[in-house]
Design goal:
Blueprint lengths: L4 H10 L1 H16 L5 E2 L11 H12 L15 H15 L8 E4 L1 H13 L5 E6 L4 H8 L3 E6 L8 H7 L4 E7 L11 H18 L4 E5 L22 E6 L12 E5 L6 H14 L7 H9 L7 H18 L11 E2 L8 H10 L2 E2 L1 E2 L9 E4 L4 H20 L1
Parallel strand pairs: 1-10, 3-4, 3-5, 5-6, 6-7
Antiparallel strand pairs: 2-8, 7-8, 9-12, 11-12
The chain binds pyridoxal-5'-phosphate.
């Protein structure tokens, strides 16, 4: 066999979203793309904002000399400086350019961060339901994921987290707003988590990193906001991206930010830049860095996601589905009307509706519905969601 056994194993367990995607492709060929209602992928439907598009036009019309060449592995100094300034204002902490490493999306930032802090056998706490890639990223860098279930309302279960910490714990990944639950953790919960981590650091005499993952930070509802991220735990890292807030998922632009209060702050920064290089990213895409710098603060039209959220939450509630309204991101995570989430996704597929079973996020019995789709797709799909619900109850 030419493909590594570990990779073959990983591919078998990894592929719920991909399997749904492939089933969806087959269905589209069979019945026509406009007859398939695809809520399986978190692929943002909104176009980048005009401020970003015009920055890009300017850059292509009058490119700064050398724009397309190699650069420092951590990114353009000017882009890092701009982001450090924005982060300082937003987080009320004194970031400098060196604290920001430009990366290939949040996925790149997470991989760079994990490679920077993990020794072989170190454990990383991952909260279920989770973004499944975390498990692979941790494994890729020699770590061992320790899955801790969220509370029933999908808040952080601090007692369970404390219990899961061992002398080998090196990091915890916290995703807020959360994919798939839509939860935003409160400032108080984050402060309590930080206190718990600092107690554990003292107990085991080692750094434990709080690694935030915030691609959905700007997509929030009902006046909710992400909590301050750097006020509490000193060893905090942030993986952020513009895949969702600027609608640039295919362009691969994000960054890793290191807390100005982190122990060994500049060593972490040097190591992260090195890891950006040796992971083969070399540096984040040049033109994206420059366009980002020139359109800082712009976002996609979040009002459009608000409208989608309203339509789909009202429609699914009327049909009998049970879920908490998402506070951020663009996912619903309803309980299935039957226990078997896989069977329920099949019943939905018979209605030409594609979603991902909760087991793909370590949380069976639920489904994830990504509502970052055209509004008319939601409207046309609602009767089908309702039919599937009734049908599942009859079987
Ligand atoms: C929770 C979470 N983290 C990270 C990522 C990866 O984002 P990026 O496209 O910036 O690599 C995603 C993408 O869907 C996500 O949902």
């Amino acid at each position: 066999m030419t493909v590594a056994l570990g990779v073959q194993e990983a591919m078998k367990s990894a592929s719920w979203i991909r399997r749904m995607f492939e089933a969806g492709q087959a269905l589209k060929e069979q019945v026509g793309a406009d007859q398939v209602f695809d809520f399986s992928l978190g692929n943002p439907v909104l176009e980048p904002p005009e401020a970003f598009a015009s920055a890009l036009r300017e850059l292509t019309n009058a490119p700064p000399k050398g724009m397309h060449r190699y650069m420092p592995n951590a990114g353009f100094p000017s882009t890092r400086q701009c982001l450090a300034q924005a982060l300082s204002e937003e987080q009320q902490q004194p970031f400098v350019a060196n604290d920001v490493i430009m990366t290939v999306g949040a996925a790149g930032a997470l991989n760079v961060a994990l490679r920077t802090v993990l020794d072989p056998g170190d454990q990383v706490i991952v909260i279920a339901p989770y973004f499944v890639e975390y498990l692979f990223y941790v494994g890729t860098h020699g770590g061992e994921p320790r899955v801790v279930r969220a509370a029933d309302d999908f808040d952080l279960d601090l007692a369970a987290i404390e219990q899961a910490i061992t002398p080998k714990t090196k990091a915890i990944i916290v995703n807020t707003p959360n994919n798939p639950t839509g939860r935003i953790y409160t400032p108080q919960r984050i402060a309590e988590l930080a206190a718990l981590l600092e107690r554990a650091e003292q107990r085991y005499d080692r750094s434990i990193y709080l690694l935030f993952d915030t691609p959905y930070a700007k997509i929030t509802y009902d006046g909710r906001k992400n909590p301050p991220l750097f006020s509490d735990h000193k060893n905090t890292l942030l993986a952020h991206s513009h895949s969702k807030d600027l609608g640039l998922a295919g362009e691969r632009i994000g960054y890793l930010a290191i807390s100005p209060r982190a122990e060994h702050r500049s060593m972490l920064s040097d190591a992260a830049a090195f890891n950006n290089r040796v992971l083969g990213f070399i540096n984040a895409p040049a033109i994206m860095q420059l366009a980002l710098e020139r359109s800082l603060g712009a976002t996609v039209d979040v009002a459009s996601y608000r409208r989608a959220r309203k339509t789909i939450t009202e429609g699914l509630r009327d049909a009998g589905y049970q879920f908490a309204s998402p506070e951020g991101a663009f996912y619903l995570f309803p309980r299935c009307p039957i226990e078997d989430d896989l069977r329920f996704t099949e019943i939905l597929r018979e209605q030409h509706v594609l979603v991902v079973p909760g087991r793909g996020f370590g949380w069976p019995g639920y489904i994830r519905v990504a509502f970052c789709v055209e509004h008319e797709v939601i409207e046309r799909a609602l009767p089908r969601f309702a039919d599937a619900f009734t049908r599942a109850r009859q079987v």
